Amino acid sequence: MSKAVYIATTEPDSGKSIISLGLMQLLLGKAAKVGYFRPIIDDFEPGGIDNHINTVSTYFNLDIPFSDAYAFTRSEVIQRKNEDRDDEIIGKIIEKYKAVEERCDFVLVEGTSFSGEGTIIEFDINVVIAKNLGIPAILLASGVGKTLEGLVGNLQIAYDTFKDKGVKVLAVIGNKVLPENVDLVVTGLRNQLPSSVLVNAIPLNPLLANPSVKEICDSLNGKILFGENYVNNQVNGFSVGAMQLRNYLKHLNENGLVITPGDRADIILGALQANLSANYPAISGIVLTGGIVPEEPIQKLIEGLSEVVPIISVKGGTFAMANRIGAIKSQMYAENTDKIRTSISDFDKYISTDALAESLVTFQADGITPRMFQYNLLKRAKTHKKHIVLPEATDPRILTAAKLLTDIDAVKITLLGNRELIVDKMGKLELVLDLEKVDIVDPVASPNFEDYARTLYELRKHKNVDLTMARDLMEDVSYFSTMMVYQGHADGMVSGAIHTTQHTILPALQFVKTKPEVSLVSSVFFMCLPDRVVVFGDCAINPNPNAEQLAEIAISSADTSTAFGIEPRIAMLSYSSGASGSGEDVDRVRQATEIVKRKRPDLKVEGPIQYDAAVDLKVGQSKLPNSQVAGKATVFIFPDLNTGNNTYKAVQRETGALAIGPMLQGLNKPVNDLSRGCTVDDIFNTVVITAIQAQGI
């Protein structure tokens, strides 16, 4: 179930605040603690605060510090994009969002406002953020200046873009629509969008569209002379007082703003009296132009009035100030509670709130993005820190990964080898690894060496291993590190940067052994594709598994998938889909599929199935129309090692996917193998998943 929703717009001045305020009011009636988060905000002055965050948090009294409610300012994002640091942007947004999510029952995430530099890339950024956070979206656009076809087309394109990127759109809203066109907009959108998408339109409300006296004063750098308590008065139009008072009084409008030179005492006093008179409309305020303030007797007269609307003084001329006032775009702000209440009222009136609340509660994400997957891995590792031994301590990649892991306090590390050689290697690499945070153990000099050798002898004497042979074997770092895990002196082991797979896992097979319910050790890779994470198995251990073994690999891989937050939908891969093919190889996959269904009827499994039918929804529906897996598989079981190993490497190299693993399945304690061509990132990620395995998944 989703714990958040993303509000996104297609343009500036769309009236996004009405959705944020109305939705926050709705959510606070459904959840005990609701959070508010903006991934990217406009730049603000030192010591200042973002207006959107201040408005929402102040009005609803949210318990969230300003610094926690956003990730980046606009200029910070532009700088990082110019430096090709996009991963850093998404990484920090995920981290800050998750910190808010952990403290709240639900989080309202508000997208960017399309103001200032960089607006051309904002729409795409919002899609990417929503996708990586794994949350559904609500889309809106303004009807101001658009035809019906233009508004509907704008929202249709936005919907298609979010959908194509894998972001579920719950609702589409046309905002600031002429009242007489509301039904037309709703009908137009319903004709273009799936029935599962909620469609609404909100009419243009002059009270929300027009600025307050405070906004006008701030925009003109004005000075408040009188009536400061009423600066939140809404302005419903303006008129210039340049004629004689008797003629100007005819031009006053309800809640209108009076603009007049500061030396026109007759207009000033006449407007104030008209505001108090039952025979004339009330005014919202007075703007005095030219930098002129009324003379002292006039000021004294004004001070003595029982009620005074805001009077502000500005430096510019009357004509210039009138033009600037006409161009002001109104914004919501915390002090203008009348406008906030009006926004919430309009939201409740024109939005299908019950249906929207139901959509939010029942939404479930289809998958997880690579960045969120990696974030979750690291978070889980840090939550219950484990002790991992790395036996290949003189390899530069191992040392670099060890530094990264200890710097972020993800795991406790033990390095095996001669301390002087390790320190010398670090010096040559100019690597500053805090040796106070890691253990360095020389196997031969270890006080545990003799005990380990005797333990190995007892475990393997039935295989003709004597004590001398056990001591010789224990000098091997693979045996020593595996024995550390077996004895509980370490929680897991990662090796293979230098040694072969057989060298790495043979000790584990000999005395760590498999879990009681498992007869086969197998492996999986977590394939971090551009938009999702899937599981490939077995790509590292078993050359030619029979049907029973294939079934066990599938079941183990499904359990691993579930443990790491990926819903398992198993594709038993072959060169044929369904009943269309025959032959020894395809029959073996078919038989394995039936075994999985019999042993684990709770699992969604399809086989035999071709790779394209497993990943492409259209192909899958055409070949296997009633399948729960076709077109949306998350766990791919390859028929043999040759196919699996080559496929994962092809996908990795051709798509730029990150392959995390291999992770071994079925052992009593976690021991994992690296490829000799592994990178520092491969080692880092494998250590992290080993630590999570050690937590008892």
Summed up:
By secondary structure, the protein is of the alpha/beta class. The protein contains 28 helices and 23 strands.
What are its keywords?
28 helices, Ser_kin/Pase_Hpr-like_N_sf, 697 residues, P-Actrans_bac, alpha/beta, phosphate acetyltransferase activity, 7-stranded parallel β-sheet, 23 strands, 6-stranded mixed β-sheet, single chain, 45% helix
What does this structure look like?
It is built from 28 helices and 23 strands. It has 697 residues and is α/β, with parallel strands linked by helices. Strand 11, helix 12 and strand 12 form a beta-alpha-beta unit. The longest helix is centred in the N-terminal third of the chain and has 18 residues. The radius of gyration is 34 Å and the shape is elongated.
Mean pLDDT: 89
Quaternary state reads single chain
Radius of gyration: 34 Å
Report the principal-axis shape.
elongated
Strand order of the largest sheet: 3-2-4-1-5-6-7
Strand content: 15-25%
Roughly what percent helix? 40-55%
Question: What is the tally of helical segments?
Answer: 28
Outline the low-pLDDT stretches: none
The largest pleated sheet is described as: 7 strands, parallel
Q: How many strands in all?
A: 23
Structural class: alpha/beta
How far the N terminus sits from the C terminus, by CA atoms, comes to: 21 Å
